[in-house]
Amino acid sequence: MSKDAVPTAQVASHQATGTPADAGDAGYSKDLKHRHVNMIAIGGAIGTGLFLGAGGRLHNAGPALALAYLVCGIFAFFVVRALGELVLYRPSSGSFVSYAREFLGEKGAYVAGWMYFLNWSTTGIADITAIALYTHYWSMFTSIPQWVLALIALAVVLAINLISVKIFGEMEFWFAIVKVATLVGFMLIGIFLLATQHDVGGRTPGLSSITDHGGFFPHGVMPVVLVMQGVIFAYSALEMIGVAAGETAEPEKIIPRAVNSIMWRVGLFYVGSVILLALLLPGSVYSAGESPFVTVLSRIGVPAAGDVMNLVVLTAAMSSLNSGLYTTGRILRSMAAAGSAPRFTGVMSRSRVPYGGILLTCAVCVLGVGLNYVMPAQAFEIVLNIAALGIVSTWVTIMICHVVFVRRAKAGLLTRPHFRLPWSPFTEIITIAFFVGCLGMMWNDPEVGRKTLLLVPVIAVLLVAGWYGVRGRVSRTADRELSEITE
């Protein structure tokens, strides 16, 4: 048996005894309740990609942006559904890294874990940059340097994560409540404007906003195809539900409901909001520099619309940073238990928080504070594109793990739960192809996207060098675990 894979006997033994199959799962509290996980799922699906990014995309793609959100949302749902099945098979705070270890071997887990760390550490830099930019919106903060505001935001969210998982869950719950309440409020206002044919900035809302301005595809199909590379990343953080499952008391009850609810939420909040925005104003009116919700509300004279939406977008960025520190802390602890991450990232506090991994992610974010000091104007775009590589890698890993999982189930080596991803392996193959295609479309953006793709060989070299640095420790850890099982 290869030392690079988790022994089947080990997994079977753990399943029989009920103890964690991943050594990194030991010691966690089970303080996340159904409402926490439910709102974590919502919070992962709703973020700045909708509140802020939809404006520029509506301008470029027109009403067909709703179709792009729908298609990308379906594939994102397939990923979460596959992950949900793996969670019910074996809940783990190591999530997809733990499953990669079992189904792809230690090399697979190593690549998956560090690419996810790359995703969230760079996303964290983008988040603190965004928080600083959004805070500068209010005049009372304009005199404070951007890097100072970024550092304050990082310190606040770090404190939240280090206290306890229950505090984290509560914060995500209320962050999600703010986002959902805002969207519901806007949609009610939008429906009222449509029903009463209320004037919106000198225009009468309705189908004429679409038919009189180029139709559903005002600029053709290609802009819709190209915009998908940005749309797909609006759904990043959905995989967080797999990590949270390791700290819930009843994942077999909570996870299926949370996963299944993602689909209708995507349809309602993303697709519904974009259709509503397109009916209220022509796509050409929206812009990348302003939230589309602010555009509409300001046109009908809602007082302080900009202040309210800026607060919501600020909340979304804080939520994203909060989530990033939470997930990377758990993922790195799983890797540390296998020897593929530094030992200190496996350390847990008295309140059962893996603070070593959280602090490592935070250290990278501190570099982001420095980036905000050196080049405040470019900091956001630079790190956001690097994060894109990490999220695609993570989602592809989940689907590959699921393919191997189903194959082993068919061979009688394990049992699939009743909650399943349909049409396997066709679903996994087409989903992987879609994500790789979205990544490839970044080549069409010579300014940022193409430069990001050119980083792939550099990242590959770093991963290979890192593997040669840790493989001895990984091998010794695997030998020790195997000897403990056979004794």
Notes on the protein architecture:
This protein has 20 helices and no strands. With 487 residues, it is an all-alpha fold. It has a single domain, classed as Amino acid/polyamine transporter I (Up-down Bundle), CATH 1.20.1740.10. Helix 6 runs antiparallel to helix 7. The two termini are 17 Å apart. The N terminus is likely disordered.
Annotation keywords:
single chain, Amino acid/polyamine transporter I, globular
Q: Which regions contain 5 or more consecutive residues with pLDDT less than 50?
A: 1-20
CATH class: Mainly Alpha
Major sheet attributes: none
What count of helical segments does DSSP give?
20
Query: Residue share in helices?
Result: over 70%
Number of strands: 0
Radius of gyration: 22 Å
Overall mean pLDDT = 86
Q: What's the architecture in CATH terms?
A: Up-down Bundle
Order of helices and strands: HHHHHHHHHHHHHHHHHHHH
CATH fold descriptor: Amino acid/polyamine transporter I
Fraction of residues in β-strands: under 5%
Termini separation:
17 Å
- The CATH superfamily bears the name Amino acid/polyamine transporter I
Q: Globular, elongated, flat, extended or rod-shaped: what is the shape? A: globular
Number of domains: 1
* Structural class label: mainly alpha
